[in-house]
Fold this sequence. Notes:
Helices cover about 0% and strands about 50% of the residues. It has about 150 residues and is an all-beta fold. The chain has one domain (about 35-145): Sandwich (Jelly Rolls), CATH 2.60.120. The strands form 2 sheets. Strands 2, 3, 5, 8, 9 and 11 form a 6-stranded antiparallel sheet that branches. Strands 1-4-10-6-7 form a 5-stranded mixed sheet, with no helix packed on it. A hairpin with a 4-residue loop joins strand 2 and strand 3. The protein is globular.
Amino acid sequence: MADTMTAKPAASGVQPRTNLHVEMLTGRVGMGLAGVASNSLSDGDTWKLCKIPNGAHILDGWVDFGTTDGAVEINIGLTGDEDAIIASVSASDTRHLFSDPTVQVLPLKVSVTDNAKDQFKFLTVTVGAGASSPSVSGTITFKVEYTMDLTV
């Protein structure tokens, strides 16, 4: 059965992050998190890594999913579009770059309808088909950079 996991926030009502930096000259916002883990994985499990506001342009980033037992296929994307950034890659100790020239989706604009209650989308990692073992476990680290500036 597929589960949805959200990284644990430092305080109630605050999105999880270990470091958040804003480059004042370029207007880039970056965030990252380490140590999101699961004891076992199944097809369709999703991690909500961080919130990205409506209107943001994702400029760069990476996700590293280190598995400890078996191979897993993952998709990297946004709420409602699980493979918007990278589709069907092997989750291994390899760092998956958003700016991979074979992907060609950046900059990616986050778009939410004006009447939606939540004016953000989550950056997500979703387990795809083909987990080789039901006892697969892993730890996710990531970094994402985005800007609210309309001129990227």
